[in-house]
Design goal:
556 residues; alpha/beta; 5-stranded antiparallel β-sheet; 14 helices; 26 strands; 20% strand
Length: 556
């Protein structure tokens, strides 16, 4: 078989197979090749220049020994898929469920996650968003410190394990969204810069990619090929692109637009819908505007503003970036137009921020709404969920606004039964110096926000992962079961009545009290009324769902 690697500035590259090193041949484009007798399961590594240190393949699809070990040849065609009739799943009118494989079940594997998929079917979700599964150093972590983007984390079950999960989802009618990280690499095992000019600059999280400098064509291809691999070889239905605002790219054709074009082509080849969802802090509608309208062509983006406005309205928290969202009418404004900061002053940033959404051009399908997500829980010092401080009646109101509003709703695992388990930041770097640096950095970060060191969980302590793992036994508890029934009922209503999943923003109206003590969303013949204070909102029509502060009515 032929081994290849891109290393344009070196004069010598070898591939080690077993105990034998084989010289590779360099082409004019900087790609090195070697034809060596090998097959699936063969382990190999590259040696660069005169350095005899074996390094894993930057495009490795199997790392059974971790991110520092040898790569293993993986046969993508060997897996026996059963989803041949799968027609795909688009974002429109779908409900997304975000989960982390390492804490979704005590088993922490793809196979044990499969055992809980029927729960998601019964809940009524359509798409399962899986937090990053690419290889990172250690056994436990969020996944955003990945360094080998094409290799599936071995402790979860490796590449075959992830394929089994996707196949099982499709068998149950569930689409799969995979979270991918192209804006930085993790701090351990990021060897890309030894191979070539992959890196350019540094973000808050690690080295960033060279997307627009000299020799950046192959770096961009590295990103695009990785994205297409997940669609084609792993059958995923959508990619969630982490923190795209951190991608430094000054080209006339931005990498996001290039990804959009390639995804459209791959969708045509595979004959099923494929989607790209961006996490963006820019509040720029151009992110989700079609390429034909001079946009970047993302199918959707997260709307943190909607989360912030809803969180402040429900909890009263106004610290940090929440401060601006205490403004009167903030929730109603954000519900109407996706962004609160749409050219307005942002005190957290110290400048004006954002641009208005044209509600006649874009629909709610282009924006994800959520009461909670991994960031908004995990980046709190103690990883506490909103249910830790919010009574069930207000949580039901928050769920109704997300699930019955015009945006694409997303739930975070366990939210549907008000899970008592927190979701804290954790990692497991074997290097003691790196582990201590991460531990100290986390404490410093929260110390600036008034948290004491003793209040910040040790991210390297295995007990932190244990605390963050869902306790499925809670489903038998009457209090948790009641919340699960609320979520199931809301999703069932959404499915049963098209008005309650209508993504039109131009026709969407919201009534709100002058003091924000209540809010009513108009959804065709339905009214979704939430009482935040003591005064009840005006409601009319037949009651179709009622839960203390929440009332859904329908008129003839």
């Amino acid at each position: 078989m032929t081994f290849t690697v891109w290393s344009p500035d070196l004069e010598r590259v070898r591939v080690r197979i077993g105990d034998v090193d084989h010289q590779m041949r360099r082409a004019d484009d900087g790609w090195w090749t070697a034809d060596v007798e090998a097959s699936a399961g063969t382990e190999y590594a590259f040696l660069l220049g005169d350095d005899d240190t074996p390094l894993p393949d930057p495009r490795s699809t199997w790392q059974p020994h971790g991110v520092h070990g040898a790569s293993r040849v993986y046969d993508q065609d060997a897996f026996a898929w059963s989803d041949h009739d799968w027609a795909g799943r688009s974002l429109e009118r779908s409900v997304i469920y975000e989960l982390h494989v390492g804490t979704f079940t005590p088993g922490r594997t793809f196979d044990t996650a499969i055992e809980r998929l029927d729960h998601l079917v019964e809940l009524g979700v359509d798409l399962v968003e899986v937090l990053p599964v690419n290889s990172f150093d250690g056994t436990a972590g969020w996944g955003y410190d990945g360094v080998l983007w094409s290799a599936v984390h071995e402790p979860y079950g490796g590449p075959d394990g992830f394929k089994r999960l996707v196949d099982a989802c499709h068998a149950r009618g569930l689409g799969v969204v995979l979270d991918v990280v192209y804006n930085h690499l993790g701090p351990s095992g990021a060897y890309l810069d030894r191979f070539g000019p992959y890196f350019a600059g540094q973000s808050d999280w690690g080295p960033g990619l060279n997307l627009d400098g000299p020799q950046s064509d192959e770096v961009r291809r590295f990103v695009v090929d990785n994205a297409m691999m997940w669609f084609e070889q792993f059958h995923v239905d959508a990619l969630r692109l982490d923190a795209v605002h951190a991608l430094v790219d000054t080209r006339a054709m931005p990498i996001l637009e290039e990804l959009s074009a390639e995804t459209a082509r791959m969708s045509a080849v595979l004959g099923r819908p494929l989607s790209l969802v961006a996490e963006s802090d820019l509040n720029d509608p151009r992110t989700v505007r079609p390429r034909s309208s001079h946009g970047l062509g993302m199918d959707a983006q997260w709307s943190d503003d909607l989360h912030h406005a809803l969180h402040v309205r429900l909890t009263g928290e106004t610290d940090g970036y929440y401060a601006d969202f205490a403004a009167p009418g903030a929730l109603a404004k954000t519900l109407r137009g996706a962004f609160f900061h749409d050219g307005t002053w942002s005190s957290f940033r110290g400048r004006t921020h954002g641009r208005p959404v044209d509600v006649h051009e874009l629909t709610g399908t282009s924006f994800l709404a959520y009461l909670q997500n991994h960031d908004q829980i995990g980046n709190r010092a103690t990883g506490d969920r909103i249910s830790a401080t919010l009574p069930p009646d207000l949580q039901a109101c928050g769920a109704a606004i997300v699930l019955l509003g015009p945006y694409t709703p997303m739930l975070f695992m366990g939210e549907e039964w008000a899970a008592s388990t927190p979701w804290q930041f954790f990692a497991s770097f074997p290097d003691p110096e790196l582990a201590e640096a991460v531990r100290a950095g986390r404490r410093r970060e929260f110390g600036r926000h008034g948290w004491g060191e003793s209040e910040v969980p040790d991210p390297m302590d295995p007990a932190t992962v244990e605390r963050s793992t869902l306790d499925w036994d809670e489903l038998a508890d009457p209090e948790h079961a009641r919340m699960l029934d609320v979520y199931r009922s809301l999703i069932a209503l959404r499915r049963q009545h098209p008005e309650l999943s209508d993504p039109s923003l131009s026709d969407f109206t919201v009534d709100v009290a002058d003091d924000d003590s209540w809010l009513v969303m108009h959804r065709g013949r339905f009214r979704v009324a939430c009482r935040f204070g003591d005064v009840a909102p005006p409601v009319e029509g037949e009651i179709v769902l009622e839960h203390e502060r929440l009332t859904v009515t329908a008129t003839e």
